[in-house]
């Protein structure tokens, strides 16, 4: 039964309307929304909005509260399908900017998360790539490219997140020195600390960053202030940050002072 429910939830996410996706993005940015305010914003009835948010709640993307809707409980990430559809335009723009940095014939380590999967998907023009990843969606995409090689660590799969974590993953990345390490994060604190939802996520990300010649952080603007709670690394330790909006001034200056680069895609949300 749990497996059947998971498949139903993923199917619900795939069939969301444009308005439902927009509602999800707005609640993701603000943390909550009132039914009445959403009805006025979209010029529809409260009953219509209730049907929209009920669909989002059925997919475990949101949670109903009295008079409105909010994100799932703090400290838990959204289901992969929910996250993949969230801010999709920004993520695709970030992915295209990443693809412009990557030549053929190099090696990459790619982390868990939705934005790295978009980034690897965008490398459709590159040949002879070697991809190391604990992200199953990245692996599936990479397997479709005739001249690419794909390597995965052993371990237990997290079905809802479509990835592999644990000490074996950290040891896997530590065995290699790749040309590029590409990763996202659960959130970025005001002081630039990088945040994720579990210690295993942080450890895997840091293993990638520590075993590559050039680290690339893919970051959409909603990650700033997001309440992930496990600390691990700092934005200024990254070689290149690609974001859909300018970084806060102090962080941008600190990154530049340490020799880091920025690419701003300018994708409006």
From TrEMBL:
What would you give as a GO molecular function for this chain, any one?
DNA binding
Give the protein name, as stated in the record: DeoR/GlpR family DNA-binding transcription regulator
Q: SUPFAM superfamilies, per this entry?
A: NagB/RpiA/CoA transferase-like, Winged helix' DNA-binding domain
The alphabetical list of record keywords is:
DNA-binding, Repressor, Transcription, Transcription regulation
- Lineage: superkingdom: Bacteria
Q: List each copy of the HTH deoR-type domain by range.
A: 16-71
Which SMART domains does UniProt cross-reference here? DeoRC, HTH_DEOR
Q: Spell out the Pfam families in the cross-references.
A: DeoRC, HTH_DeoR
Which organism's genome codes for this protein?
Answer: Acidimangrovimonas pyrenivorans
